[in-house]
Amino acid sequence: MLGLGSWCLANAGVSLATPAQGRTATPAAMPRLTRAHGVINLSRVETDRPQVALTFDDGPHPQHTPRLLDILAEHRVRATFYVIGSLVHRYPAIVQRIVAEGHELGNHTWAHPTLSRHGDHRILSEIDRTQEIIWQTTGHLPVTFRPPYGAITPRQSRMLHASRNLPTVVWSVDPQDWRRPGPAVVAQRMLQGAGPGAIILAHDIHAATVAAVPEALNGLYRRGLDCVTLSELIGWGRWGPEAPYRHRIAGAGSRRTG
To answer: Does 11 reside within a domain?
Structure first.
């Protein structure tokens, strides 16, 4: 078990009011994320709680993401969306809906490059630009990062943690939905290896993946597993403006590497 300590956002006085739907927010200057949690690279959370994190990459998509949000609302499930900054800029209303319905946003870079092929300057530019557009659009600041394709070196993860206080989050369950095997296969693969602390990867840019979600959720329920956001799975509590700036976490556990 890893004691995560406490975390805070530096400018505790900034407003985090959710912007009106369909408009881009203009909040105060983006605060600097500062935490003392020690989580550098995470693929699964070591926990006895019957919880998993369902995560969706590469969106938002103008048709598939709203349909997915409808499904998650029907099942009363919260998920984590690792969004691409350029698409946040293109579809701000969808991103605002994601947040308004209680889901978490994570940073998935601005243009989806293979970061392991690039230097630190490019990595930080991709991440900072995405943090800024998410902050300007929603008044929220992502607290985790996922590299495209999972392609990041241990040194790069340490650099990112040291310079931006963002842990690198990958996954423990991969349905390989990008191969488009069909909804039934995607749902089956999403359930394979799903147990307490699992981080399930999926993509809301594929119609078949969205179609697979109801069966996957039913399968998780049959196993007695609940879906929570990534922050909740780690033990940080609810992500978003309702969370206090200083949030003490005791006894939450996660596996760290790198």
So the answer is: no
Token readout for 43 is 């693929």
- The b/e string for 176-200 (b: 16+ C-beta within 10 A; e otherwise) is ebbeeeebebbbbbbbeebebbbbb
Domain that holds residue 51: 40-249
Query: What is the spatial distance between Cα 118 and Cα 156, in angstroms, rounded to a whole number?
Result: 10
Q: What's the average pLDDT block by block, 10 residues per block, for the chain (258 residues)?
A: 29 31 58 74 94 98 98 97 98 97 97 96 97 95 96 96 94 94 96 95 97 97 96 88 34 32
For this structure, is 48 an active site residue?
no
The rounded distance, in Å, linking the Cα atoms of 233 and 144 is 12
Residue pair 212/183 in contact by the 8 Å Cβ criterion: yes
Catalytic residue among 57, 58, 177, 204: 57
Does residue 34 sit within a domain? no
In a domain, 15, yes or no: no
C-beta contacts of 111-114 below 8 A and 24+ residues apart: 111/84, 111/85, 111/86, 112/58, 112/84, 112/148, 113/148, 114/148, 114/149, 114/151
Q: Is 247 a catalytic residue?
A: no
- The domain tally of the chain equals 1
| Amino acid at residue number 207 | A
Instruction: Determine how β-strand 247-249 pairs with β-strand 41-42.
Output: unpaired
Evaluate whether residue 179 is within a structural domain. yes
Catalytic residue among 103, 161, 203, 206: 203
Task: State in Å, rounded, how far the first CA of the chain is from the last one.
Answer: 17
Whole-prediction pTM value?
0.84
Between strands 33-35 and 41-42, the pairing is: unpaired
Domain harbouring 233, CATH code: 3.20.20.370
